[in-house]
């Protein structure tokens, strides 16, 4: 098949998608635009400089405000070769949605061909055009354009330049109740803040905005991932782990989302360790996670057994990986957990041990540090022991029967309360047949009538008493 035939078939498919956009504008139905955008995924592999020039010439008229901008980008001979064949001219005027759609196809091609500088230029011009036209029928296209707009500027290390424009667009989308664009822009802003470690600004943005409930799962997964990272930095590990679990559940389950799944699981493992829990071993055996989670498996094993030497060795060996994953700061916080676990293991193994031996086993710098750490562990209830400061040793108390304490009673109380609440909620949710409701309403009427009769009898008795006094 020649390049001319490729362009001919591509033009036919693009015109079919354009008809869907025109139908969407005419009927004010967004589902037709959704179909057109989904169909564009199959066109992505067939895009080239020559076919795109043919599409621009066959679809966009000379009066189109974006025609010359797209052609100027495609004629950049520094990065790609251009066919010198003349363009076919389209005389029909196009709606703005068609102009943006053709530019969107050009953005896809520029992104796939790594022409990032040209992509940044075209996406910036396209965002200005979208904000100038200001049409609600362009909401779905605008969400796609904003995504690649941020992506191109991220690749070219100019991410800080676009933040004011994204904030303005997010305010506009919120006022319009444009859920799809609002979800995309909110995620882009959170990613922008996190990229520059501006976690306070990101937290303020989350507190001042509301993520749309109708957003697609892919955007919801991103949002929960960013929330989990923000709360982990702010030491709210329980809420962070809950959000990360939501991100894992909502993320698409396909090979293309493997990178996102790996990033979420890496952060979730560290946060779960910080909460005092140990991740399941089966998690590290997943095929798409096994290789990327090898360093995190070593960290988990060190935390589980309280081996500070192994923890330090793993941290030093994989420091570049942890920094690239942006989990290094959180992993440093695990050192205290490793020490607490090591002290707990020592207290179970020895009834009496000197602070010097504790210092050697935990690889601490001095006996004073060991004494301070053991004292804090005793105060926090990690171990049940006493310290003899004069002799310099720690003595573990004898194991007390756990059933003589209130812990089993408290655990049983929580379980019984849960079962009772579940039973009450189930009873409240029951639906009764109409006939039974009718009988119940009849009984209510009978009771009301008996109450009225009793009231009348009481009034009669009071009247009799009054008469007797006279």
TrEMBL record:
GO BP field? regulation of protein catabolic process; ubiquitin-dependent protein catabolic process
Q: Where are the transmembrane segments?
A: none
Q: Which GO terms describe its cellular component?
A: proteasome regulatory particle, lid subcomplex
Q: Which domain of life is it from?
A: Eukaryota
Alphabetized, the UniProt keywords read: Proteasome
Domain named PCI is located at 221-401
Q: Which GO terms describe its molecular function?
A: enzyme regulator activity
Q: Determine if DNA-binding is one of this entry's keywords.
A: no
**UniProt cross-references to InterPro entries, sorted A to Z:** CSN3 (IPR050756), PCI_dom (IPR000717), PSMD3_C (IPR013586), TPR_PSMD3_N (IPR057985), WH_DNA-bd_sf (IPR036390)
Q: Does the keyword DNA-binding apply?
A: no
Q: Which family does it belong to?
A: Belongs to the proteasome subunit S3 family.
Q: What is this protein called?
A: 26S proteasome regulatory subunit RPN3
């Amino acid at each position: 098949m020649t390049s001319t035939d490729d362009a001919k078939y591509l033009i036919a498919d693009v015109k079919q998608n354009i008809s869907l956009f025109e139908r969407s504008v005419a009927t004010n139905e967004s589902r037709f635009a959704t179909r057109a955008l989904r169909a564009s995924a199959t066109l992505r592999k067939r895009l080239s400089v020559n076919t795109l020039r043919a599409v621009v010439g066959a679809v966009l008229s000379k009066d189109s405000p974006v025609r010359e901008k797209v052609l100027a980008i495609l004629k950049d001979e520094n990065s790609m070769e251009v066919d010198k064949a003349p363009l076919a001219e389209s005389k029909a005027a196009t709606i703005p949605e068609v102009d943006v759609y053709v530019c969107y196809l050009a953005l896809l091609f520029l992104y796939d061909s790594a022409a990032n500088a040209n992509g940044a230029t075209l996406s910036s011009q396209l965002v200005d055009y979208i904000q100038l036209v200001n049409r609600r029928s362009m909401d779905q296209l605008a969400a796609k354009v904003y995504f690649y707009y941020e992506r191109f500027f991220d690749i070219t290390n100019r991410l800080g330049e676009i933040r004011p424009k994204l904030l303005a667009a997010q305010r506009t989308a919120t006022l319009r109740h444009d859920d799809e664009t609002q979800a995309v822009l909110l995620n882009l802003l959170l990613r922008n803040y996190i990229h520059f470690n501006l976690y306070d600004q990101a937290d303020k943005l989350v507190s001042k905005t509301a993520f749309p409930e109708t957003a697609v799962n892919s955007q919801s997964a991103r949002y929960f991932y960013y929330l989990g990272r923000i709360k982990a930095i702010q030491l709210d590990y329980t809420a962070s782990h809950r959000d990360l679990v939501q991100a894992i559940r909502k993320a698409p389950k396909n090979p293309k989302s493997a990178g996102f799944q790996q990033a979420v699981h890496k952060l979730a493992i560290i946060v779960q360790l910080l909460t005092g829990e140990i991740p399941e071993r089966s998690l590290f055996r997943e095929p798409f996670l096994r290789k990327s989670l090898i360093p995190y498996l070593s960290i988990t094993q060190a935390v589980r057994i309280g081996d500070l030497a192994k923890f330090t060795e793993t941290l030093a060996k994989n420091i570049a990986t942890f920094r690239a994953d942006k989990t290094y700061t959180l992993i440093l916080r695990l050192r205290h957990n490793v020490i607490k676990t090591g002290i707990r293991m020592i207290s179970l193994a020895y009834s009496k041990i000197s602070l010097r031996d504790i210092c050697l086993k935990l690889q601490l710098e001095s006996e004073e540090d060991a004494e301070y750490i053991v004292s804090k562990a005793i105060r926090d209830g990690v171990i049940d022991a006493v310290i003899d400061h004069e002799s310099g040793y720690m003595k573990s108390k004898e194991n007390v029967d756990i059933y003589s304490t209130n812990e089993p009673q408290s655990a049983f109380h929580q379980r019984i309360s849960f079962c009772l609440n579940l039973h009450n909620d189930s009873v409240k949710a029951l639906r009764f047949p109409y006939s039974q409701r009718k009988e119940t309403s009849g009984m209510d009427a009978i009771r009301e009538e008996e109450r009225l009769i009793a009231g009348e009898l009481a009034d009669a008795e009071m009247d009799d008493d009054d008469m007797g006094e006279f």
